[in-house]
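## Example record

The block below lists the input lines for one assembly entry, exactly as stored, with component labels intact.
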Amino acid sequence: MGYVGWRPARDVLLGGLRRLEYRGYDSAGIATVTPDSPTVEVHRAAGPLDELVRVTDAAGEGDTVARAGMGHTRWATHGAPTDRNAHPHRDASGRVAVIHNGIIENFAALRAELEDDGVELASDTDTEVAAHLVARALDAEPEAGFTAAVRHVVNRLEGAFTLVFTDARRPDEIVAARRSSPLVVGIGDGETFVASDVAAFIDHTRDAVELGQDQIVTLTREGAVVTDFHGDLAPTRPFHVDWDIAAAEKGGHDFFMQKEIEEQPAALADTLRGHLVDGRIVLDEQRLSDQELRDIDKVFVVACGTAYHAGLLAKYAIEHWCRIPVEVEVASEFRYRDPVLDRSTLVVAISQSGETADTLEAVRHAREQKARVLAICNTNGAQIPRESDAVLYTHAGPEVGVAATKTFTSQVVACYLVGLALAQNRGTKYSDEVEREYHALVESADAVKEVLASAVEPTRQLARDLAGSKAVLFLGRHVGYPVALEGALKLKELAYMHAEGFAAGELKHGPIALIEQDLPVVVVMPSPKGRATLHAKLLSNIREIQARGARTIVIAEEGDETVRPFASVLIETPAVPTLIQPLVASVPLQVFSAEVARARGYDVDKPRNLAKSVTVE
Ligand code: F6R
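Predicted structure tokens for the full assembly:
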């Protein structure tokens, strides 16, 4: 985050960082620029933001007169998360400071060049070189100006970098450059901001301008000037942030994840709203013709982590409704295996943040191969939707907890909307059938509400009972399989517990060897009213593990009496259509992982080593 204005910069920056902390938080730092000081004042601290607050408080009143500066929360890529490697970094004279998101891929060559010239680098980071290079450019051509010096340097950098610079001799100016990682400008009254996310400055202004790829912004109190990497004025896209700070606050809940779990009915309803118009499914942005969509003969879904699990569910819906083959792939693997893509391939990229580097690179690869790309995203105007041919936004609102919850279930219904849009377009479903499916999706919000009312408390109790377990396994079949994978991922990331999800049928091919006395195994049962064979097969699987001593925690449709004798613990969910079941079955698993984490004394919203937005590959 960067700030130029009339308020004490230190307060603005620490407040903004508090709101950005969820993006990455192994260390943090601020730099402030005070008129007449020869150096930029920097405070940094490893650990959570509170450490930085302690350090700045201890520094006393020194820099409280500064009205400009910048701050950063770091998620380490090059160099351990120590005070020394925390951002901002300064050049040797202390005149220029920089903060950075991303990776400067040619930093080793630049570092060697600086070291050959006798410059001593103070950190192990790839970032620090940028401060030295800008200071040198300023010294070499003092008349050219701060923005020109930054432009000169960014044109030498390779990789993904979003950088913000301050210069001690310019206490009223901040320059930032964007390549890949996001950057938004906030325009206030006599003050301007720049940040990775509007959340950083939403307390002060809701008027924002999004920076595009390869753009530089120069901030002064009067406003922002945006240019490209050649120095030409660049077109900008001003927008008004349509959510307020209450949406990003805990609202009486102990932690954000809890609030976000409870917001799911609203998130689902908001995601679906307005997408059925005159009996037809409409997307948000559609730069593909109906004919181009009809020509699609193959779909790839690419995504990471939880979004990948939503993608697995897309496969069941799209293949069933549209009769098109669908492959689902982890985005980081997709482009490296030379997938077969052409104009008649649709790549569906799912990303809550719209910034995930792995997914973005998969999108770019797909487009280079002439495939059509449709993005499902929760962040308006993020890079992935910008680079896609069609977009469907999930309207889950800001998700602050690092673990995806409401954005996951919203992604699932968004995937289903895409399936319905393709089905209507290809004529594999009549419009009345499309409407019926759409209304079933709308009703899913009530089913999730019901499960929140009935299943949360028993699940919490169960979580507290099992918090001491060494491992938990998760089993499912058909649409229950991605739910099992997602349940395991949530438990791993929040409770740091060994957790694995399996297709229940795979158990006997190896993993059953893991079953031992009292091992908790969570089973996602299909509806007894669905395909009878599926239900019967899973019942057999439960018996197999129970016979080997497992403690069976079964998530089943209410009224499914056949499963009761085999469940050590039964969690009932409302009866819903097959494709909706993942939405209701996921909720208890989200609650379970959060509660186990809490019982083990971990920070539910900020699990260790993780960041909300992963902008490096
Ligand atoms: C897990 C989680 C991550 C994200 C993944 C993709 O709870 O949140 O696995 O789902 O990093 O992030 P987006 O959706 O922003 O691309």
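The chain has a mean pLDDT of 93. Residues 304-307, 351-353, 356, 359, 403-404, 489, 493, 614 surround fructose -6-phosphate (CB under 6 Å).
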